[in-house]
Amino acid sequence: MDFRLLGEIEVRSAGRPLDVGTPRQQVVLAALVVDARRPISIEALVDRVWGHDPPANPRPVLYAHLSRIRGLLRQTAAPGDATAARIERRHAGYVLDIDPELVDLHRFRRLVERVEQVDGRSSPCRQRDDRPCDEARAATLAEALGLWRGEPLAGLSGEWAAQVRASWHQRRLDAVVRWAQAEFRLGRPTAVISAVPDLTAEYPLAEPLECVLIQALHAAGRGAEALDRYGAFRRRLAEELGVGPGKELRALYQSVLIGDRHPPREASPPALAHRTAAAVAPPVPAGTPPSPEVPPGPVDTAAAAPAPSSRPRVRTSHRRALLAVLVAVVLPAAMVSARVLRPDECGPEGSGGPPAASVERARELFAAAEAFDREGRARDARAAVADAVRLWEELNGLDPDRNAPPLAPAVLRALDRAGVDFSVPRPELLSWLGDPVHTPYPAISQAILARGWRFTAPVFLDAVVWNYEHTPGTASPRAAADVHTDVLKAAVLEHTRTRHGTPVTEFDHLLAP
For residue 405, with 0-12 CB atoms within 10 Å meaning exposed, 13-18 middle and 19 or more buried, which class applies? Predict the structure, then answer.
């Protein structure tokens, strides 16, 4: 006899599946199996099965389901088997008397708890560098994870079923992280690379999964892929939840960025509660005027950057190969050689400035993007500017006073080539871009450059920032993680329409192919 809840509900006897009845009957069965050997009151069963909308007289309906489930259990019993599963009525309610080892959900829990017990203080396996213990951990957790066939209680509706699913998904994620950490300590990152990507597709906002996968890619010498995954995940968090990566993932990213093959020691598996998405701000009002604080006067575009090349973008079959070379050779080398600056670091003696290597590397990446754009290699330019923005953000986060001002001219040129227009003088823009602590311009610029390299209509940066700050419920962003992408898109669209009459309805329509 075998009861399976980690997927569609199945009851098997002698290797053959039995008819588990209607979805409502399956909920009754699941309610008993999840709390096997524990009494459940009639009121609790009614609540689990019907929630807030029970029938007028639910007890007779519930008794009918229980009667049919008893008949199902009789089919699973071998003749003379005194240990067969059965439903008993007790003073406290109904009890499903069944060996938990016959239920995949309870076997999963037992295996995971076994690992947690051997990691306890009294266990000789508590030392994290004990290879035999890590082998046991990895094997036990792999066995537990192998019990999953899909969504727990798949196909069952109702609030109780949804709560059970959420709880067991979290246990599964905790187990995956523990298993991956054991594989890391055993020196087997390729096992993690093989298994985790499918899970990140199921749990696209689970940060610990991305953390172990990025760590595995870096340990396997695939730093460029690790950086790409971090960038994609950071954008996904911003777009879906309006937040940035957590402290542990940011620290890991910095290790990958500087080529440290000894990333921060992993923490205990965190509580993997999904963060809820922030409420979408109201639509941007039409005709919002520019900020009164914005000084008038045109920007000196000639001084800001060379005029964009009139040469048409080249579409060749070699562009994919060129991009592959860029990612595989040029950018990883650049990233490994770049040092992320700490606040206590300085440049040449007496200068008080940052080491030239890191800021210079960011400049080189912006310059590479500019060169690719002049040659018509739009995809290569976008890849290069994405890495430049990534390093720029890290430098600003670590020491904005030292790292932001030297990069402001390169950022201004990148914005100009991307199609961002200005209505303020160049010195004012440079001042704003060089001050990420007190102005939102670096945060907004990072979000715009990371989202798309070319725009088909002018985007006025100062108007977009003003519109963003005056949207109800939105504060001025002081770091890239504070930018709400949906609000930013609405701000871009509103001022593109009102100032240029551009008939676009979606932000992506502004991006050049």
Answer: middle
